[in-house]
Amino acid sequence: MKMRFDILTLFPDMFSSPLRESILGRAVEKGLIEIQTINIRDYSLDKHQVVDDTPYGGGQGMVMKVEPIARAIEWVKSQNPSTRTIYLTPQGKPLNQDLARRLFTQSHLILLCGRYEGVDERVRELFIDEEISIGDYVLTGGELAAMVLIDAVSRFVPGVLGSDRSAEEDSFFNSLLEYPQYTRPSDFRGSCVPEVLLSGNHSAISQWRRKEALRRTWLRRPDLLAKANLFEEDKRVLEEIRNSSDDCGLRNTD
Length: 254
Ligand code: 4GX
Known about the structure:
Elements: E1 3-9, H1 22-29, E2 33-39, E3 52-53, E4 63-64, H2 66-79, E5 84-94, H3 97-104, E6 108-112, H4 121-127, E7 130-133, H5 143-154, E8 187-188, E9 191-192, H6 195-198, H7 202-220, H8 222-226, H9 232-243
Helix pairs in contact: 2-4, 3-5, 7-9
The structure holds ligand 4GX.
């Protein structure tokens, strides 16, 4: 059940703290996930350990050379030939919860992090099984994208979230946004926790939470409602929400 990630990067130090704190840090300590960084520079045969070069045909910037990346991937694959190799790029398939769940079914992934203008096209052609994007924006490199992917996928590994919680219970699993949460004090500068949450009436609390989750999803992410598994009662509550004009300040206004 253990998952392993091998990260190919020019900046291995970027990974030390984010993956060693808190939940992921504990998962690594417990041996539930194993994360290894591989410095692509170490696989350059060049005496100056060059890893990039100017693009054929001219143009701005630098392109990552094929050979060091090829040798690094081949080294990882020599240990485990069934590993799949993922390239993080805005041109890839958008990462979402379904894709994260599917990636969890692989026990070993190689994540290639590009810098500059990206990698020589022959890296893609010869070594990449799948290209994944974490969103429609441009980062300075694939490293942060790889960390996002590892974080989202690792939550599916049994034991990572603690024994009594599973990633499948999270709201995205049933395609609704989370209901609002509160903790002490019940009155902060006159802003009060909804009465029902203090009532001890568990069925009233569940109903309120479901309604707030539906309200939030309808206001902010109506696209998610289309694919949600809604009960007849949910549909009735949604009708009620649609007919009341109060958006409780939750609407996304852009
Ligand atoms: N989701 N980046 C890749 C290098 C690059 C440049 C051009 C291909 C073509 C990103 C994202 C992302 C920045 C990683 C550019 N690769 N990765 N890098 N968004 O923005 O995954």
